[in-house]
Design a protein that fits this description.
CATH topology: Rossmann fold
Structural class: alpha/beta
Shape: globular
Number of helices: 8
Strand content: 5-15%
Number of strands: 6
Strand order of the largest sheet: 3-2-1-4-6-5
Radius of gyration: 18 Å
CATH architecture: 3-Layer(aba) Sandwich
């Protein structure tokens, strides 16, 4: 399989994250949640690449949760799955009989997508769900929890649910959004999903993203510092 240097580079960091958090074992059945955006398509591509040489047997299934939103290129996404020769499922959700994005928020979409993924995994006997959250997402979540929930917490790279029956994994945990964008442009999948959520610009996550970006102009290491902070707790200085 011929791959670009950026795919190999991201694959190496993905491999380290998988090893560090023991994300995959032999005979795992893994659903790859594919929204159609650059992050989930990067996850799909790199996991397919790694499947070609890793020394364990891992079954992959791409799953797209289709809200039926006007303008979303579901057909193009299906064609992409077929091009990649990966088994896939498109699960339709009755978003709203008359979709009105003003009545929804990021939590609503995320909760319903996650619920559908859990149901598919249980029905088909898949034990793991791979989500495309990367380092930027994790860092933003740390600050969101501090700013708005008065708690310290983040997205875990590996999280067992339902007594271990299903495990969420985030193989892109060590990857930055910037690198993923470079890969998307290089591999040509940055234009598959041009749908833009109307709530995006006003979301709390976008606000935190801008704050991190501004601090990054002064301290380029801000993302990795926040990411590493949860492993560097100074207990003597906690209240």
């Amino acid at each position: 399989m011929s791959v670009s240097n950026i795919v190999v580079s991201i694959s190496k960091r993905m491999g380290k994250a998988i090893a560090d958090y023991d994300m995959l074992q032999d005979n795992d059945k893994v659903i790859i949640a594919v929204s159609g955006g650059k992050d989930s398509l990067a996850l799909l591509n790199v996991m397919l690449y790694r499947q070609s040489f890793i020394p364990i047997n891992v079954e992959l299934l791409a799953v797209h949760i289709d809200y039926g939103l006007p303008g979303f290129p579901t057909k193009r996404l299906i064609e992409y799955f077929q091009e990649k020769k990966i088994k896939y499922i498109v699960e339709k959700i009755d978003f709203l009989k008359e979709p009105n994005m003003e009545n929804t928020n990021c939590f609503w979409c995320s909760w319903n997508r996650r619920k559908a993924l859990f149901e598919i995994a249980a029905k088909l006997g898949f034990n793991k769900i791979a989500l495309a959250h990367h380092m930027d997402d994790i860092v933003e979540t740390i600050l969101l929890n501090m700013f708005f929930n008065a708690e310290i917490g983040a997205m875990k790279p590996k999280q067992e649910l339902f007594g271990g029956k299903i495990t969420i994994i985030r193989p892109l945990a060590y990857e930055t959004e910037e690198q993923i964008m470079r890969m998307a442009q290089k591999e040509g999948f940055d234009k598959i999903d041009e749908f833009d959520c109307p709530n995006k610009s006003s979301s709390k996550r976008e606000m935190v993203k801008r704050i991190i970006s501004d601090i990054g102009k002064i301290n380029p290491a801000v993302k990795i510092n926040i990411f590493r902070s949860l492993k560097n707790i100074k207990e003597d200085y906690l209240l």
